[in-house]
Specification:
Elements (H helix, E strand, L loop, with lengths): L1 E3 L2 H11 L5 E6 L18 E5 L6 H11 L5 E6 L6 H15 L2 E6 L6 H6 L8 E4 L3 H5 L1 H10 L4 E3 L2 H5 L4 E4 L2 H16 L16 E5 H6 L6 H6 L2 E3 L1
Parallel strand pairs: 1-2, 2-3, 4-5, 4-6, 6-7, 7-8, 9-10
Antiparallel strand pairs: 8-9
């Protein structure tokens, strides 16, 4: 039995290692396109798990940032150039930025040593807000990225609630906790005799908006009432 949570690289490595040992993956955006399963409803083989809705939420994240900092005319998106989906994420981000009438700057960081230079470019580019793209590497460096956003006083939006509990400003996305819990259910069912091929890949159906009020105050931001009204959780 193998359970992976390190994104597509970890899931693919597990699948390549064995065609018989049951594998449960967590938070993979397109397991069919990535060759992990035959289909979401009927995975086939020895692999199943929990998908994640990522790119489809990009316009909503830009919309939320625009409401938080309506005066900004330029935003940035931090991407990992080593991520095979980075080009698609950039494409989505450009479309979302055009829809909001703001310039978009793409910042790249494929290693922790590149974070400082990426954030240092925000001021000369006159960037007023930052979108952090979905990436397992970024998730593993959550505290570092949140600290850099605070140091550079940049309003930033993240995918996972865990960034906001670590001090980030705002997040919009599925619940990693719920997905992890469901992955645990799948592991239990497989250990009790179920076959991965018979367990459909589950996709999130609810998405949470989480705001860190203390971080907003530190940035001098007033959270619009409409965002407050939509928030699923406000951390004070």
């Amino acid at each position: 039995m193998i359970a992976t949570s390190g994104g597509i690289s970890a899931a693919r490595a597990a699948k390549n290692a064995s065609s018989t040992i049951p594998i449960v993956f967590l938070a993979i955006s397109d397991p069919v396109e990535d060759g992990l399963v035959a289909s979401l409803a009927r995975p086939g083989g020895n692999v199943t798990g929990l998908g994640v809705i990522t790119r489809e939420l990009t316009p909503k994240r830009f919309e939320l940032l625009s409401e938080l900092v309506p005066e900004t005319r330029a935003m940035a998106m931090l991407v990992n150039p080593n991520n095979a989906k980075s080009a698609l994420m950039i494409q989505d981000a450009r479309g979302a930025a055009r829809a909001k009438g703001v310039r978009l700057h793409i910042l790249e960081a494929g290693a922790e040593g590149e974070f400082d230079a990426a954030f240092a470019s925000l001021l000369p580019l006159q960037v007023g807000a930052l979108v952090l793209s979905n990436d397992p590497f970024f998730n593993s460096r959550r505290d570092v990225l949140v600290a850099l956003a605070a140091r550079h006083a940049i309003p930033a939006i993240y995918e996972w609630r865990e960034f906001v509990t670590a001090g980030g400003l705002i997040s919009y996305g599925p619940s990693l906790t719920n997905s992890s819990r469901q992955a645990g259910v799948y592991v239990s069912r497989i250990l009790n005799g179920a076959k991965p091929a018979d367990l459909p890949v589950q996709q999130p159906t609810t998405f949470g908006l989480v705001i860190n009020l203390e971080t907003a105050k530190a940035l001098g931001l007033t959270i619009p009432q409409l965002i407050f009204a939509r928030a699923d959780e406000v951390i004070e």
